[in-house]
Amino acid sequence: MRNSLFRSRAWLHVLISIVPVILIHASASADCSAPAGLPGQVNLRGAPQKPYFCDGVRWFEMNFIEAGGTGAGSCTPAELGTFANRSGSFRLCNGSDWLRQTTDTLILGSCTTQGELKFDPLTQVLSACDGGILRTAKLPAPAVVYNATGSLQTYSVPPGVTRLTARIWGAGGGGGGGARKGAAGAPRTGGSGGGGAYSVVQFDVTPGETLNLYVGRGGGGGRALLHTFLIIFPSSYTSSGGGGGGLSAIQRASDSSWLVAVGAGGGGGGADEQLTAPATGGRGGAGGVHLGEDGVSATSGSSGGRGATSTSGGGPGTGSFAAAAGAGALRAGGFGAGDSGTRDPASFFNGGSPGLVLDNQIPTGGGGGGGGYGGGGGGAGAQESDVGSSGGGGGSSSTAANVHWLYGESGSGSTPGGIGMADRPFGIAEGGLGKSGGDTGADGGHGLIILIPDPAP
Fold it and tell me: Among 137, 155, 293, 355, who pairs with 364 as Cys (CB 3.0-4.6 Å)?
């Protein structure tokens, strides 16, 4: 069982000088330059902070094995961080129990200085001296990282592997496009997309079976479109909302059963050209663990799509424009209001689409985010109403009954869940920024799936 012993750099320097560790691959893309590190160096990263070890190329998360053992006894809070020879083993007190090195270690040789650490830059192995034996923790298989490709990906369970831990981010929604009335008009900003949710789950697998992996793509940014009807105000722009982010999910290929689906963020609403009235777009709702966040309503004239619940899709946003937004559905985000909108339940990689601007006069609502259930699309204001349109709702997350849910964190606004996780590459699951003037909104960040096999193949 993992624990949280480290609370300061002072503790870190004391503990790391003695305790054998297990190193787990933190991120395939996180190198030792972010933050800067030298081979063998340990640093605190993430929120909450955890110790990481630099192998000269990448940072690896360090975790301790907890065990009692015959004759070990218990320790007191006053002994937290101290070491002792208990039952013939070198042990560390975590405030209540003595932690020991497991027998599942590799013996690299002999040593004389108890607690001494040795780093071999050639093999990139960190070992510790324990009772005259130089030991290193056996490394599990490196984490397998799946990025968004827009296509179905598969994972074949290796021989001997009976359990998988999955760390999953839903994608972020796209930002709404910007607007402006005339070349000298004040720029109006589209709403930003919502961030995706984050979940850590664990489930049993059978060696040789195949899993289907769906990694959500970030919602596309809303377009800024030249307003051709305003002859007296040339260079005027209105805009469409951003698309909803796609869910990230795992499915058993053998029976098509869904193991987990993680909610994505809704797209931001489009902005409208105008002279004086505020006409910014509403922000998309973030993906949630149980409940997706509602899309934010524009200043007036339309309302945001509702976030999905654990049992149903989010309701559509409303607006004075005749074309209605779409409701969220099972694993599908609703489309935003506008001249037209689509939702393809068979395409899990993308969330709901924004409404399409056909006559270049009406800003459209953002699409709902995908998830176990998708969020509703955002509503749109009426033609020439000088109001922005609203954001789509965020998707919810869900797991099957036989999946052990370990941890989850909903997004908040444009910020994704799991923002402090050290293995989250920059930009993953973030909501795209809404843009102003005649600029296209930023795309949302793609989702991510990281699989950790147990035991190591």
Answer: 355
